[in-house]
Write a structure and sequence with these properties.
The structure holds two protein chains of two kinds. By secondary structure, chain A is mainly α. Chain A folds into two domains: about 90 residues; about 35 residues, no CATH class. Chain A has four helices and no strands. Chain B has two domains: about 200 residues, Penicillin-binding protein 2a (Domain 2); about 350 residues, 3-Layer(aba) Sandwich (Beta-lactamase). Classes of the chains: A mainly alpha, B alpha+beta.
Chain lengths: ~120, ~600
């Protein structure tokens, strides 16, 4: 009777433990592999982004240099000659200096200054 | 079975224990890479941030002749136009060469440089050509192995992994003497600012220790060390590239009109000593300095000396006024153009009878200035010459500056006291002359010439800021004002430089025409003509020095250098928005009462 009783009861415990241990070990292993794969994948992304960043920096530099070239006095002079715009250096009396407006008092003061400049140039 | 396992066990111990060190080194050599990260050389900018010099990363194009084999002629024909090389020369480089290795075995060369300093765009173009070049595989019936070999031939032309730099000067010849150039394998600054600031512009190398996979691609997760390169600092100069351009175009015109051996101009802000422009002709292109003779690369403004001639009379008069030996109204007998002293005769260009000190400056009388100096005495004159910075370097941030010539007082002969006051027996650089005139314009305060405004990092943050530096007070502000009064008359009717007068600004200046000295004395027919002046005379914004070395035809400073001064001044004043202090006759403003 005892034998019967023993054979029909708790044999599931160790089996369950073994399954749990296997599952944990497997999931740890899977997690490790997944993590490694993620690290590699992120590493690749970092590399790709580094390349893109480098490319953008280079492009930015190229455009900056191009802008500097287009704005250089020699280039502007050459363009003026090419376009034949007949531009000449303005005489001081042709130049009106505008004051920067800050606050009401300075607005009033600046207006009077501007008007005096206009009177003088008339 | 046992023997097999024993053998495997032994092999395991052999690989993992006995040969561990050797094999791990081999494995590391196969995967670990140390990459040097080159810093970019800093830019040189003008005062407004316009680019004057910059650096680009470029490639070195190489080939592996061992892989090319008999395809050399095909590649040479396709690549020669692209690489801008002679086809035969390129073919010579691509042909494999046999040599004896260290152990006596025959080897072919595996690395040859085809061209250096190739831009990235050019490299892309070369790669395109390589992709399209016909190596016969289209028509021919090749096996898989042969096709693989042909693919290897295309890969035999490659860019070296180590990037090089190319220094680019977008303004081409502009400010070449200030900027200098770089050269050599290490891309070192050789002259100009490039040389002076080399350590600041160069930056610091970085490195990366990483591992690669079987295809040679980096495994980012296995990076051991990653230290970024620190790029060089950007140098911001006091030069204004627009004013520099104005000066250079006017010097080009002067070279055509007066056909001198050379011409120099320096533009300074007197209150701070900031150099806004400095140019010489002949000049050179710093993008290809080797194409020009060494003489063209010399910055005459700091390396060349010449007798200053009559421009030096300003120093004599300033000294006498400061010592209260004379006033502007003190009158001297100018001996009707011929004065005998120490057994030698001194002449004026025109015979003058009695001239006040002011008129001595106006007419540029040699006899008058000699008599002023005689009243002052040699020790005092020598003292003021040194006070104005002659005989010592100005400490401008440029290489090769010379101190000029001022003989010690005990070396002066009997005639020196009559010769030195008119700019003979002394020699000065253009930078010394312009700083002297700037000192007079700056109420007697001599400033150190300033060429560097600040050093910035690549984000534009200021790392070092340079400030104006006063050297000494040469004469009192009152004396400086009196000298300015006298100098104003030089450009007025009756003065020697009426061609330097400006329509909207009062100019104070002095002409100088000195005969050039050679080994046996003065060389007949060879002159050094100069004009130094500042404006507006009472609130000086700019001080400009112009000198022509051996002009052909007209040679007086008032006829050659003065018009160049005027042209530069008019354009620079308009660009910089300098407020006029004169209302010209007949102008709209003068008709409305000149308010």
């Amino acid at each position: 009777m005892n034998r019967k009783k023993r054979s029909s009861t708790v044999r599931f415990g160790p089996a369950l433990k073994a399954v749990v241990i296997c599952l944990v070990t497997c999931s740890l292993g899977m997690g490790y592999v997944w993590q490694k794969q993620q690290i590699n994948s992120l590493g690749q992304q970092i590399k790709e982004n580094e390349i893109v960043l480098e490319e953008l920096k280079r492009e930015n530099k190229r455009r900056g240099d191009n802008l500097a070239y287009l704005m250089s006095p020699q280039e502007l002079d050459a363009r003026l000659r090419q376009l034949n715009l007949d531009l000449v250096v303005p005489k001081p009396e042709q130049i009106v200096v505008l004051q920067e407006l800050r606050g009401i008092n300075s607005v009033y003061r600046s207006k009077t200054e501007i008007s005096s400049v206009r009177t003088a140039s008339r | 079975m046992l023997i097999s396992f024993s053998f495997l066990g032994y092999r395991l111990v052999d690989l993992q224990v006995l040969r561990h060190g050797e094999l791990s080194n081999t494995a590391r050599d196969n995967t670990v890479r140390t990459i040097v990260r080159e810093p970019r050389r800093g830019d040189i900018l003008d005062v407004r941030g316009n680019l004057m010099a910059t650096s680009l990363f470029v490639k070195t194009i190489c080939a592996d002749p061992g892989m090319i084999g008999s395809y050399g002629p095909h590649l040479a024909r396709a690549l020669a136009p692209c690489l801008e090389l002679d086809e035969a020369l390129l073919l010579g480089k691509l042909e494999p060469k046999l040599f004896k290795g260290a152990e006596g075995q025959m080897r072919t060369n595996r690395y040859v440089v085809l061209k250096r300093k190739v831009t990235r765009e050019k490299w892309e173009e070369i790669r395109d050509v390589l992709e399209k070049v016909d190596l016969g595989e289209v028509k021919g019936n090749f096996s898989r192995k042969q096709r693989q070999m042909i693919r290897g031939v295309r890969r035999a032309i490659f860019a070296d992994g180590m990037e090089d730099q190319l220094r680019v000067y977008p303004g081409r010849r502009m400010a070449s003497h200030i900027l200098g150039f770089v050269g050599g394998a290490d891309h070192d600054g050789k002259e100009g600012i490039e040389s002076v600031l080399d350590s600041k512009l160069t930056g610091t190398r970085g490195w990366r220790v990483t591992e690669t996979n079987s295809k040679g691609h980096e495994v980012v997760s296995l990076r051991h060390q990653d230290v970024a390169a620190r790029n060089g600092l950007n140098a911001r100069l006091t030069i204004d590239s627009r004013v520099q351009h104005i000066v250079e175009t006017e010097l080009n015109k002067a070279m055509i009109k007066y056909r001198p051996q050379g011409v120099t101009a320096v533009v300074v802000r007197p209150s701070t000593g900031e150099i806004i422009a400095m140019a010489n002709r002949p000049d050179f292109d710093p993008n290809r300095p080797g194409d020009f003779p060494a003489g063209h690369r010399r910055n005459r403004a700091v390396t060349d000396i010449a007798e200053p001639g009559s421009t030096f009379k300003a120093v004599t008069v300033a000294a006498a006024l400061n010592e209260r030996q004379v006033s502007l109204r003190t009158v001297f007998d100018c001996e009707r153009g011929s004065f005998s002293y120490g057994g030698r005769r001194l002449h004026d260009h025109h015979p003058y009878h009695r001239l006040s000190v002011k008129e001595i400056i106006t007419k540029s009388s040699n006899i008058g200035s000699a008599k002023v100096a005689l009243r002052l005495g040699s020790p005092k004159l020598y003292h003021y010459i040194r006070q104005f910075g002659f005989g010592e370097r100005t400490r401008i941030s440029l290489p090769g500056e010379v101190r000029g010539t001022v003989h010690r007082l005990n070396k002066w002969n009997k005639l020196s006291i009559t010769r030195v006051p008119m700019g003979h027996e002394v020699a000065a650089t253009p930078i010394q002359m312009v700083m002297m005139a700037s000192a007079i314009a700056n109420k007697g305060k001599l400033m150190r010439p300033m060429l560097l405004r600040q050093l910035e990092d690549e984000r534009g943050q200021v790392v070092v800021k340079y400030h104006p530096e006063a050297v000494r007070q040469t004469v009192t502000p009152d004396t400086a004002r009196k000298v300015t009064e006298a100098l104003k008359t030089v450009v007025q009717s009756g003065g020697t430089a009426t061609r330097a007068a400006l329509e909207y600004y009062t100019v104070a200046g002095k002409t100088g025409t000195a005969q050039k000295a050679g080994r046996g004395g003065y060389i007949p027919g060879k002159y050094y003509s100069a004009f130094v002046g500042f404006f507006p005379a009472d609130r000086p914004a700019l001080c400009i020095y112009v000198a022509l070395d051996e002009p052909a035809g007209e040679y007086y400073g008032g006829l050659t250098a003065a018009p160049v001064f005027k042209a530069i001044s008019e354009r620079a004043a308009s660009y910089l928005g300098i407020k006029p202090d004169l209302v010209p006759q007949g102008s709209i403003a003068s008709r409305s009462g000149g308010r």
